[in-house]
Amino acid sequence: MATIYLIRHGQASFGSDNYDQLSPLGQLQARRTGEYLARAGISFDAVYSGDLSRQRETCELACSQLGGEIPHTVDARFNEIRNDEQVEKLAPIVAAENPAIAQLLQRGLSSSKDYQKVIDAVFNYWVRNDCSAFGIQSWEEYSGLVQDALRDVMRSQGGGKTLGIFTSGGTIATAVAQVLGLDGRHTYAFYEPIFNCSVTQLFYSGSRVSLSYFNDRSFLQLLGQEYEENLVSYR
């Protein structure tokens, strides 16, 4: 069977003027991920990423540890869920129904934990309701793009390949839920626990695809012990 590795980007720069860039830790995580792949004997026939800086940079840093030129395709369908526009448009509606979310919004979202609680509430509202009137990307459009992108990779690459897709937590969660035959209401359960630079493995043959393992970060723990580095992070 052919193999796809879904790899989340390294830690981004939460709280900075530009979130969409790797933090120093994120850059180190990406390089260590590439080192793990090399030491495990995993080589890619081709790699893909979304067009977000944190995704492309993670891909480039990881692949720099593998040696040789690896074809890299940038496909915006692998971009992250548009959390910012959802928070802007939907958080006030969710807050009107949920006093706890209203309190978090009132004190600001400078804490990553507070931000994640709001994302949880907003995401689940988004997938359960028709939000087209708010002028934002719908769940149906987003999830359809993820599904089409994965199918296009499988179709264009064919059998016997080992492929890497460097993307984000929401995209990985959406793809995994789809592979398991689950709808949007179950997707957040896969979204929240995804670690930076974790690896999820899919097998495919023709149009059939199955999940081998999900959200593995054990290699970061092992390399962290080896180099005396703290490499594990969620956000």
UniProtKB/TrEMBL annotation:
Positions that bind substrate: R54
Catalytic center residues: H9, E80
Superkingdom of this protein's organism: Bacteria
CDD domains xref list: HP_PGM_like (cd07067)
Keyword entries, A-Z: Hydrolase
Keyword set includes Signal: no
GO molecular function, one term: hydrolase activity
The UniProt record lists the keyword rRNA processing: no
This protein's name: Histidine phosphatase family protein
Organism: Pseudohalioglobus sediminis
